[in-house]
Amino acid sequence: MDSLVFEDVAVNFTWEEWVSLDSSQKKLYRDVMLENFRNIVSKQNGNIMALKVSPETRGVN
C-alpha cells in the first residue's frame, strides 16, 4: 500500500473561496481537517513524524 499523505485527504480553498465561507462553514472545515489529521496519525500508529508532507505543502518548488 502506498504511503498516505495529507494532500490525499485535504480540502483546499482559494482565498476567494475561503473569504466567501461563513463562520459555520469555516468551523466545519476545521473540524473535518482535524478529524482527517487524527485519522492519518492513527494510521501511523501515533507517530506524527511518519506523516509525509509533499513539497507543495512545504512551499518547496
UniProtKB/TrEMBL annotation:
It comes from the Eukaryota. Residues 4-61 form the KRAB domain. GO terms for biological process: regulation of DNA-templated transcription. CDD domains: KRAB_A-box. Pfam families: KRAB. InterPro entries: KRAB, KRAB_dom_sf, Krueppel_C2H2_ZnF. PROSITE patterns: KRAB. SUPFAM superfamilies: KRAB domain (Kruppel-associated box) (SSF109640). This is KRAB domain-containing protein.
